[in-house]
Amino acid sequence: MARTALLLIDIQNDYFPGGKYPLVGIEAAADAAAELLRAAREEGLPVVHVRHEAEEVDAGFFGKGTEGAHIHPAVAPRADEPVVVKHNVNSFLDTGLDELLKSKGVGSLVVAGAMSHMCVDAATRAALDLGYGVTLAHDAAATRDLAFNGTEVPAASVQAALMAALEFAGATIRPAKDIAGDWPA
């Protein structure tokens, strides 16, 4: 039987207040992700952390070797939890993440992290394409206000549109507290 794993994507210091690229609602999302992490550890489920790192130190955010690129303490990995470092939006692209998950017998993922409209979206879609079942904890993910063609789009609308699109694409969208009490098979 395939296992479920928790995939925590880019919950890093630069996304928090005082960081180089703060997100709307990141602290609440990190709290929900921390609850998932606690529950996954209690259940003995595999946990994989993903950390985005720019290849240059002076990047807009997540600069190589900077404090902002570190995983936030709220979801700090334990020594036995792998950290996959990526340089692209898609956590599966050029990282070995798929191989790592397969080596652990993982067939379904619970996803949490940031930014919802970028890396969470890309990883969720890639995981679905690779045949994983995906449950996305909508309240354990954060984004920011965006703009397009003169239209301002508040973060809450970005989040809602993305969750609707990912649900349509095949992901299951649930709140973290419900997932932590009832992990997908």
From TrEMBL:
<feature type="domain" description="Isochorismatase-like">
    <location>
        <begin position="4"/>
        <end position="146"/>
    </location>
</feature>
<keyword id="KW-0378">Hydrolase</keyword>
<protein>
    <submittedName>
        <fullName>Isochorismatase hydrolase</fullName>
    </submittedName>
</protein>
<dbReference type="GO" id="GO:0016787">
    <property type="term" value="F:hydrolase activity"/>
</dbReference>
<dbReference type="InterPro" id="IPR050272">
    <property type="entry name" value="Isochorismatase-like_hydrls"/>
</dbReference>
<dbReference type="InterPro" id="IPR000868">
    <property type="entry name" value="Isochorismatase-like_dom"/>
</dbReference>
<dbReference type="Pfam" id="PF00857">
    <property type="entry name" value="Isochorismatase"/>
</dbReference>
<dbReference type="InterPro" id="IPR036380">
    <property type="entry name" value="Isochorismatase-like_sf"/>
</dbReference>
